[in-house]
Design goal:
- The protein is α+β, with helices and mostly antiparallel strands and about 210 residues long.
- It folds into 2 domains: about 80 residues, 3-Layer(aba) Sandwich (Glutaredoxin), CATH 3.40.30.10; about 110 residues, Glutathione S-transferase Yfyf (Class Pi), Chain A, domain 2 (Up-down Bundle), CATH 1.20.1050.
- It has 8 helices and 4 strands.
- It has a 4-stranded mixed β-sheet with strand order 2-1-3-4, with helices on one face.
- Helix 4 packs antiparallel against helix 5, helix 4 runs parallel beside helix 6 and helix 5 crosses helix 7.
């Protein structure tokens, strides 16, 4: 059985948990205490020398990178609806997942750090950092908005692992102060994401860490 090492409070761990539920992949959860530094301990570093969550192990295969884990798990579960085998449809899913990792995640993460993480640590957001990132974020959000004007989900009429991947960097979009209302199709899609059972199941862990009472 696939073993996954993660802490649900992290963006990419939450992505994997929600995605595994979406595709119906069985797995064994190996919880790593992120806030306690468990991802930097020697036993975990033998699994992922990068010291980053999540990671997965299946027999002699060890995987890091959240999107690679989702792609493997979807194939393992035979979830063709959420990760099509048709080459053109699969390529479309793959390109959005690559885009998320190299473009979208870094931009959304700026807002998460400044408006959510820093306040939790007793620090003030640096509005200059936000100002410098804002134009890039809106450019990327505009690309998503234009795509989502054409269909309910990112790659068509059916939800795929690409939707979970691209939504993951916005775990608390209101607290992140992401201006989604300026991109109505993106805002509509995020509302649909928030209604997915797999997303709702993982929201509690995010709230527990990032929205303390």
């Amino acid at each position: 059985m696939l073993q996954v090492y993660l802490d649900p409070c992290t963006v990419n761990s939450r992505k994997v948990l929600a995605g595994l539920d979406l595709v119906g992949a069985p797995f064994e959860l190996k919880r790593i205490d992120y806030l306690g530094g468990g991802h930097k301990q020697s036993d975990f570093l033998t699994i992922n020398p990068m010291g980053e969550l999540p990671a997965a192990v299946d027999g002699n295969l060890t995987l890091a990178e959240s999107n690679a884990i989702l792609q493997y798990a979807a194939d393992l579960a035979g979830a063709e609806g959420q990760y099509p085998k048709d080459l053109k449809r699969r390529a479309d899913v793959n390109r959005w997942m690559l885009w998320e990792a190299c473009r979208w995640f870094p931009s959304c993460y700026v807002y998460l750090i400044e408006y959510v993480v820093k306040p939790l640590m007793g620090a003030k957001p640096d509005e200059g950092v936000i100002d410098r990132e804002a134009a890039n974020w809106h450019r990327l959000a505009g690309i998503l908005d234009a795509r989502l004007a054409r269909s309910k989900w990112l790659t068509g009429d059916d939800v795929t692992i690409a939707d979970v991947a691209v939504a993951a960097p916005m775990p608390l979009w209101k607290r992140q102060r992401l201006p989604l209302p300026r991109h109505p199709n993106l805002a509509r899609w995020m509302g649909d994401i928030e209604q997915l059972p797999c997303w709702q199941k993982t929201q509690e862990a995010v709230d527990r860490v990032l929205l303390p009472a």
